[in-house]
């Protein structure tokens, strides 16, 4: 079986900007996510399957949050409050069917 090769155009604006950001801060998590997204997306468009589709989805969600300027810590705090809030259910108002 032959190996597949991924070629990058070093003059492409995306590659130039990624390189600039890596040189500025090689520990930038957003840049790492973008590089993995670029690679994973190229795999998908070439007809391959991802080894870690969950990781891909998590990176996509982080990039969406970043693009929308949403704070992950703030969202986590809201989720915790929602999980601990008691559900108010009164008899006869449940929309769930009862199963014998």
Fold and architecture overview:
There is one protein chain. This protein is mainly alpha-helical and 100 residues long. It is built from 4 helices and no strands. Helix 2 packs across helix 3 (53-67). It starts with 12 loop residues before the first helix and ends in a 16-residue tail after the last helix. Keywords: Chaperone. Residues 78-91 have a biased composition (Low complexity). This is Hsp90 family protein.
Structural class: mainly alpha
Q: What fraction of the residues are assigned to beta strands by DSSP?
A: under 5%
Distance between the termini: 56 Å
Helix content: 55-70%
H/I helix tally: 4
Question: Main β-sheet, in a few words?
Answer: none
Element-by-element helix/strand order: HHHH
Low-confidence stretches: none
Tally the beta strands.
Answer: 0
Rg (C-alpha, Å)? 21 Å
Global geometry: flat
What's the pLDDT, averaged over the residues?
84
Pfam families: HSP90 (PF00183)
Keywords: Chaperone
Region (Disordered): 76-100
InterPro entries: HSP90_C, Hsp90_fam
Defining key terms:
single chain, 100 residues, 0% strand, HSP90_C, Hsp90_fam, Hsp90 family protein, mainly alpha
Short overview:
The protein is mostly helical. The protein is 57% helix and 0% strand.
């Amino acid at each position: 079986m032959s190996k597949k090769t991924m070629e990058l155009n070093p003059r492409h604006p995306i590659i130039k900007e990624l390189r600039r950001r890596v040189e500025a801060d090689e520990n930038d998590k957003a840049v790492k996510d973008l590089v993995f997204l670029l690679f994973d997306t190229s795999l998908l468009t070439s007809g391959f399957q991802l080894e870690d589709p969950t990781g891909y989805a998590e990176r996509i969600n982080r990039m969406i949050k970043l693009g929308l300027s949403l704070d992950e810590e703030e969202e986590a705090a809201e989720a915790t409050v929602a999980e601990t809030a008691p559900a108010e259910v009164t008899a006869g108002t449940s929309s769930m069917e009862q199963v014998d």
